[in-house]
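Internal QA ticket QA-208
Title: Verify multi-chain structure generation after dependency bump
Assignee: T.L.

Test input:
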Amino acid sequence: MDWNETPDLLARAWAEQPVIMPGPQGELYGIFTPPAPEAPPANICVILFGRNRWWCDRLSVKSARWLASRGFSCLRFDYHGFGESAGDCGVLHGDRPFTKDALAAIRYMRHEFSQKRFILSGFCLDGRTALSAVKEEGKAIEAVVCNSPEVTGYQGDVVTHMITLEKIRSFFCGSTSFKKDMLLRAVRRFNNLVKLATESRPGEALAERQISINFKRDFQALVRAKTRCLFLEGRDDSQYHAFQLVEQALLTKVSDQQRARITVEVWPGKIHLLENPEILRRVAERSLEWIDLCKQRPVSSSKMAILDAAPEIKMHFVLSEEPE
Amino acid sequence: MLTQRIEATLARVAARAGFAAFRYNSRAHGDSAGEPRELTFADLVEDACAAAQTARELSGASRIIWLGLRLGCIVAGEAMCRREDAAGLALWEPIHRGGDYFRSLLRATFFAHVAKGRRPGGTVDGMLDQIKRDGELPVIGGFINRALYDSTCGLDLLQSLQNWHGPTLIAQLQRKHKLSDDNEQLRSAICQTKDGGNVSVVMIAQEPPWNMMPIVKPQWMSNELLKSTKDWLDGLE
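Actual output:
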C-alpha cells in the first residue's frame, strides 16, 4: 500500500470535521472524516482507536483518510486523559480497556451523524477497547479488528513461555542492568503464577485461568453478537503465546458457524513492536484490507446463516503465512 | 507530537489567565495534511508564520508570544525573525543544534533494541548514511525523512536568535541542577544584546523520555513546567 498522500486522500483531509463528544469524564475530542462523495457509500462508520488519535506515525490519520476515500465514515478520537480530551487516564493496564469512551463515541456518531453500522479497530489495548464495546453495542457493530491484544489479566508471559532458550541466551548476553531487569520480571511472574494457582475459578484448569475474566466476557459477547472479528498476531510475540490459550480454551468451544466469523492470522516473527513503524504499517495495511472486505460482504445486516462467501472467512483459523 | 497533552493543557491554562492561545499541527504532523517525505525545515517555519497570522486574526491581538518545545524552539526562533510582532519567547528544553535532534532519535532507537536484549545492526553513523541512501529511516514511532534531515541538520538556535532581545523563558528539563552549557550560552547571548534581553530561567529536575514518547503511556505531563510558564506569562508586561 502506498502511504503517500494522493489527491483523494488530501481531499478527505480537507473534509475532516472536529467533534467534541460527551464522555464519562468530560469532553472527548476527535476528528470525523466523512466518506468521499464520489465513492460508493459503505454506510459503515469505522472507529479507529488509538492513544492518541494520531496513533503511531499518524497511521490512524492516514487510515481514516484511506477508508473515507473508499466510502467509509471514520472517527478517531483521544480517550479521556489523552490528547485534548478531559479527565485523567490513570495507570494503564492491558486488561482495562476504555470501554466507556468507546460506547460514548458510538452513541455520539449514531445520534449526531446518523451512523447505524460500525467497525471498530485497534492495536493492543485499543483492540481490547474495540472488542469490549461489543457486549453493549453488538447489534450495531459489523466487525472488530483486534490486533495483538493482551488476553491475560496480568503482565508478563504465560506459564508455557516463562523460560525459553531465547530468554536464557538474552540473559547471558545482556548487560548487568538487563539481567537485573529480567530477574525482577521473573519474580513478578512467579507471583502471578502463585496468584493464579490460588484463584477460585470453578471448572477452569490453570492454563485457562490465565485468560482474564474481562477478555472471556468480551469474547463471549462477540460470539453471541455474531460480529465478525480479525485477530492479527505475531508468532513470536508474548501476546500470541497468551492468545494460544484462547485458541485452545475458547475457540474450540464455539460452533463452526461462530468460528467462521472469527479470523485469526498469525504472522511469522513479531508484530507487537511499537518501536518498529515498518511492521506497524504492515499491520495497518492488513487491517484496512480486511475492513474494506467487510464493505463488500456485510454480515450483520442480514445476520446470514451461511458464511462461506468472503475470502477471509474461508481461511478462518488457518494460521496463514504473512500476506503479501 | 506526543507532547500534545501538555501543549493543550498549557493553552487552556494560558486562556484562563487571559491570553488567547493558538496551537496548530504543521503540515504532515498530527491532523494536518501534507506529505512527510517532502517536508523541509522551511515548511515548518512557513507554517509557524501562517499560524501566527491566523492567531492574530482570530484573537485580534497585535503581538505574539511564541512557545517552542525542543526542535520547535528553532522553528519559533526562525519564524520570529521573519515577523515584527514577537512579544516574548518561551523555550521548553530547547534543542540547540538540528543535528543533535536526529542523533538523539537514533540513540533512542539503539537503546530500544538493547533494552530488549537485541544487538543493534549498525552504528549511528551507519544509520545516518541510510537516511541519505534510502530517503527515510525508521525510528521509534515514525521515520526520519531525508528532506527534513538535510534541511535541519546545520541549524543553530543561537544563530536563529542572534537579534532577539525580548522577554525569554528558558525551561530546562534535565536531571542536572545547573544550567547546561548550551542554555547558559544562549542566556548570556540574549542578555548581552544591545538592548539587554530579559531572560528567566527555570530548571526542572525531570528528564522526560523525549524520544520514547510514542511508546510512553500515559502521555507526558509536567505540572511544574505548566506552573512556571504560567507565572512567566503573568509577569510579562
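Spot checks passed. Chain A touches chain B through 34 residues (CB under 8 Å).
Status: verified.
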